[in-house]
Hints:
about 270 residues; alpha+beta; Sortase, Chain: A; 9-stranded mixed beta sheet; 11 strands; globular
Amino acid sequence: MRIAKKKKVVWLLVLVACAGVLAYIGVLLVRWYIDGKNIETEITEIENTTEVVEVGDSETTELVNPPNDKDSDYWYYVKLPLIDVNLTELKKKNPDTVGFLSVAGTNINYPVVQAGDNTYYLTRSFKKKPNRAGWVFMDYRNNPNLENQNTVIYGHGRLDTTMFGSLKNILNTTWVNNKDNYVVRYVTETEMMLFWVFAVYEVPVESYYIQIGFGSNNEYQKWLDTMIGRSKYMFNTTVNIKDRVLTLSTCKDTRGNRVVMHAKLIKKDQRG
């Protein structure tokens, strides 16, 4: 009888523990859903009030580090238009706004913010409201005008594809089979920029790929070669120490991996 009672007590404790775990998971799911809805509301508001305009070449358009090879795909991509947005209005909504990012073949069309560290916007929306969906933000170490050798922008890899949730598209053959997907457009307060993708991959958490500056040209070239060597696909391009790089990275997923894209600046123009 005592053994039977002990078994009942054990089973009761197990059931209580399971119920507690299920309740906790339920709370997390509800929070995830609410955060997602709130982020969608902010995204819709931004889309409805922010006009993204394609801009053709002008007298001030500058081609960056053009290759000698006239058959290079570089000459195809530099013909594509830049984009412009009204950053002044976005900065009125959030003074931390430093740019606007658009990635072909994804849902990424967002203003980019920058804080004094790399944790604040992990749990804050564009309006600085607490939200686990976070926002798309630039590494606090970077110059907001993208003057570093490597500029890094982060975002959560959300399952609902908001923020950097659609960045995982770059690892799919559907994305890579469309040549027009290999570009990233970025707008700062002073310039409109076009980048050409040269590497996409998944990587465990590390600090090497998010290094923003290098002690020598040899170190920088080694880093560039390493990033190309990691790429899941080849993009028929080369990179060298004259190139400036834009790196997009998701935060780590449940496996501890991050999805990463590297692109090099190929064209820019002055704003206004």
